[in-house]
């Protein structure tokens, strides 16, 4: 009976999903924490209050996904939650950015769901291999839309026309 109990306990321990992050996951969180770490003076790196103040200053000038991260963690005035302490305390201990993000993910899973938009180089990319979502993003970057486009080939043609127009304007 004891062995069954130990077996069940062992299964429960090992069956729980791991929150350990792999390289490349939680890219916005890791990036912001590394930027913040570079902004800190050596004497500020061990002071939790100084880290929080520097993080709030960083958040004032942040854009797009970095700003969204600041909102989730509480670095902005309009943030709904304030878990800045969960960021500053481990950082003051010298914990690596990836480990700090693991701790933040336990408090708010949205922190690690943020991703940077991938940039597409129109000169080198094969448009036929892109997804329709990416083609639509390219069109929106040109402030264009493809009304009536149903098939991928129609989106590709529209992007090719716009790309050619842009190339001519650059010359």
From TrEMBL:
PROSITE patterns: EF_HAND_1, EF_HAND_2. GO terms for molecular function: calcium ion binding. Keywords: Developmental protein, Disulfide bond, Secreted, Signal. It is found in: Secreted. GO terms for cellular component: endoplasmic reticulum; extracellular space. Residues 1-20 form the signal peptide. GO terms for biological process: dopaminergic neuron differentiation; neuron projection development. Belongs to the ARMET family. This is Mesencephalic astrocyte-derived neurotrophic factor homolog.
